[in-house]
Fold this sequence. Notes:
The complex is a heterodimer.
Chain A: H1 18-23, H2 28-36, H3 39-49, H4 61-66, E1 77-82, H5 91-98, H6 100-114, E2 118-123, H7 128-143, E3 159-164, H8 174-181, E4 205-209, H9 210-222, H10 224-229, E5 231-232, E6 235-236, E7 238-245, E8 251-256, H11 261-266, E9 280-284, E10 292-294, H12 295-299, H13 311-314, H14 318-321, E11 329-334, H15 339-353, H16 359-376, H17 382-395, H18 403-427, H19 436-442
Parallel strand pairs in A: 1-2, 1-4, 2-3, 7-11
Antiparallel strand pairs in A: 5-6, 7-8, 9-10, 9-11
Chain B: E1 3-6, E2 9-12, H1 19-26, E3 52-57, E4 70-71, E5 81-84, H2 89-104, H3 120-128, E6 145-146, E7 151-153, H4 163-171, E8 177-180, E9 187-190, H5 203-207, E10 213-215, E11 228-233, E12 244-250, E13 253-259, H6 273-278, E14 286-290, H7 307-320, H8 326-331
Parallel strand pairs in B: 1-5
Antiparallel strand pairs in B: 1-2, 3-4, 3-5, 6-7, 7-10, 8-9, 11-12, 11-14, 12-13
Helix pairs in contact in B: 2-3
Amino acid sequence: MGRKLLLHNQNVPGINTLEVYRTHGGYASVEKALKTMTPDQVTEEVKKSGLRGRGGAGFPTGMKWSFLAKPEGVPRYLVCNADESEPGTFKDRWLMEKIPHALIEGMITSSYALGARLSYIYIRGEYFYVARILENAIKEAYAAGWLGKNILGTDYSLDLSVQVGAGAYICGEETALLESLEGKRGNPRIKPPFPAVAGLWGCPTVVNNVETIAAVVPIVNEGGEAYAKIGVGKSTGTKLISASGHINNPGVYEIELGVPVEEFIFSNEYCGGIRNGKKLKAVVAGGSSVPILPTDLILKTAKGEPRLMTYESLSDGGFQTGTMLGSGGFIVMDEDTSIVKNLYTFARFYHHESCGQCSPCREGTGWMEKILHKILSGKGTLQDVDLLWDIQSKIEGKTICPLGEAAAWPVAAAIRHFRSEFEAYVKNPASIKDVHHYYRLHNLAEA
Amino acid sequence: MPKVTIDGHEIEVPKGTTILQAARMIGPHVAPPTMCYYSKLKTSGGYCRTCLVKVTKGSAQNPNPMPKPVASCRTEVMDGMEVQNNTSPDLLEARRGVVEFLLINHPLDCPVCDQAGECHLQDLGYQNGAQKTRYEFKRREFEKIDIGKYVQLHMTRCILCYRCVKTCEQITDNRVHGVVHRGDAAEISTYIQNAIENDFSGNVIDVCPVGALTDKTFRFKSRVWYTKPMDAHRKCENSKCSGKVRLWFKGEQVLRVTARKDQWGEVEDFICNTCRFDKKKKSDWEIEGPSPISHHSVISANHYTSLNQAKIDTLKHQRALGFIPMKKLDDK
């Protein structure tokens, strides 16, 4: 049984209220930080902890914080990115829904470290009910003096506000999020300047994922060094994984980084193996945008070592034979899954969510969706598969923000590892009509 | 001052210069093409991705290459930076990809487009495009939108460069149009069929790189290469307008008035709607002379003072080189 730092109290009745949360040791990090530590000491602990951004990119949080420009007389902002929209990722929702005060506590401690006097939680529009939970929790925190003027009698004051987005995946990109937060159209900005220099309203801003901010709480409570002892190498601490797909126990799991992928899929403590005794076919390990891997490559690296749930091990072998930990959206597919149909779903999503600012992504995502649709309509040719490959290579790395890559990577990986499946559909269009897995998925009687 | 090398040409530029500006200083043979960048508009550029360049050396301090191609219009030069544009085959391939993306949803209706002959996308397609399209699906189509007395919006041709949006934001008092919707459904539009009406709205026609925004007073009057551009000026009552324009003549008649454009196809000074749409008599203007037009342009055909004279000159020249026997010329 691995250690749990974020979800250890998730089953305590009433943990969503301030009272119960407090009796279980809540807000201790705020007390410790504000009364006994300077902001720089808090940042130093986060640096020591080796905590890496949990939103997907895995950039060291302490380093991101230390890049924040601190000019005199200019406000600084901390913005929490709760625009969790990656297909297959639902860990932040779970955390905010179950233990909203964990995020608020993390926000107070982190804002103190960064010197922010006004912080925002930007939450996706579809999570409106979670926004209400957070707003209630913030109200409680204000009433109890954890937010507002002179917190705990110190001279530190903080206001925290929840902003609900309008349902665009692109607003999870940090600069698009800031544009949206400013009330503009959610188009990603062209970098540089980076938000650490000119972010929200042109002021230095740090944007962190929900889980990253919540992880600051145990780091401050127990010290960065203790946190760094959990995990393997540069992948320290615990990580929330949203496990979904054809497994026996889908759900959100908190794992210590370093658990072998095989154990994660088959152990009863986590996913509990593949549903209905089927065989594993493929895994998308970190949310829909990361490359899909077939069974042999997800369980073992190309060198034959067991693959672990860490940033390094999952990306071992680059994109040829590896993938990414990403945001931890772990999608498991059994032997009946059609990779092409699955890819079409992803492609349709990225086409729908492209902001339309830069040409490769705007035009390329739609084009790829249309070609996949053509293949699935039984009209595809072998040239179409090559064309798909060529299009994705012309999107990747040519766009303003990472959405272009997010759209290109799944296509590239599906063709790289499952080309034969595309070719089978092209050569034998009748095989597409095999919709068994669809009926099973929806518990429908087969027509 | 930082020194930058682009395609092997070294140049010293002021701090804060972008790679594109530095390349333009060196000359047209190294300057990357642009579809959305406009030097007269702040924060323009970065969207179309045609000006991507490869940075093979970041700077003198940090000699590592940049991992991805960068938009030269939005990337500032660093001292010791080395950049590849036309000398990098991968980059040219990437640019061809971008051009293909720009063209897949373009209607390619050049024969009936008023912009033909002065269209940046046409030039870009000619320089980088493939012979054949690989796109076989229905192209994006929109209804023509009426946005006022003078300007026609034909969204089907638009490449979403955002230039007209930035123009209205920066040189007019009030922007009433923008980009609505998302992805490849995004369109330039006024919200709830508003008209764009203000003294400088006509400038959106000049900044539009394609035929999406055209001049209603000129539509289908003539192909641009049958008109003859002359630079002219008048004393304009509007203090923000310079009154320096280009008149496009067909015979003695002024068919349209535009702002003067420089060698990069960008206007030199924005002009007001009175100058552009209301002053269409030769007597309204003081004519300075024929406009300088690039010799690559189809429009330059009109610059021969006398076509007969040109023909004779050419023949003389050819005869001097020994191409044509003396007798044949004398026959004429």
